[in-house]
């Protein structure tokens, strides 16, 4: 494991660099769209959330998104899962209600602070 993991990390960094070099504009657009959808959706599934958050995480790592941190993205990955949403809402939610609650949670967490807010 000690030999394999550093090689995987190195490979991922090389692939990421090649992606940015060859497709910077398209990649930035994909990441920006993902961030926009997460900030504005009214209903969103777990799977779509995971896919979009993965793009956003890459955007944070690449410096395309500078108003969000990796720990916040990690928290969003966890808190948007069905069981966590239901625990936060203190209620059992059906699929449609979870999708709406997930979207509301994401909009709240990802909305820019109001002018004058210190948070």
Short description:
This protein is an all-alpha fold.
Structure report:
This protein has helices at 4-40, 46-62, 70-79, 82-89, 95-110. 18% of the residues are buried. The chain has one domain. It has five helices and no strands. It is globular. With 119 residues, it is an all-alpha fold.
Biggest sheet: strands, sense, closure?
none
H/E series, N to C? HHHHH
Percentage of residues assigned to helices:
over 70%
The quaternary structure here is single chain
Mean pLDDT: 89
Radius of gyration: 16 Å
What is the overall silhouette?
A: globular
Assign the structural class, choosing from mainly alpha, mainly beta, alpha/beta, alpha+beta, or little secondary structure: mainly alpha
DSSP, total strands = 0
How large is the count of helical segments? 5
Outline the low-pLDDT stretches.
none
Keywords:
single chain, 119 residues, mainly alpha, 74% helix
What's the structural blueprint in terms of helices and strands?
Elements: H1 4-40, H2 46-62, H3 70-79, H4 82-89, H5 95-110
Helix pairs in contact: 1-2, 2-3
């Amino acid at each position: 494991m000690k030999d394999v993991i550093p090689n995987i990390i190195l490979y991922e960094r090389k692939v990421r660099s090649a992606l940015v070099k060859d497709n910077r504009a398209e990649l930035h657009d994909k990441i920006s769209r993902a961030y926009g959808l997460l900030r504005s959706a009214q209903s969103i599934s777990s799977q779509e959330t995971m896919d979009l958050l993965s793009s956003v995480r890459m955007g944070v790592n690449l410096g395309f998104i500078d108003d969000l941190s990796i720990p916040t993205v990690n928290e969003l990955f966890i808190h948007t899962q069905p069981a966590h949403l239901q625990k936060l809402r203190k209620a059992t939610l059906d699929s449609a209600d979870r999708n709406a609650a997930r979207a509301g949670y994401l909009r709240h967490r990802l909305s820019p602070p109001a002018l004058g807010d210190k948070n």
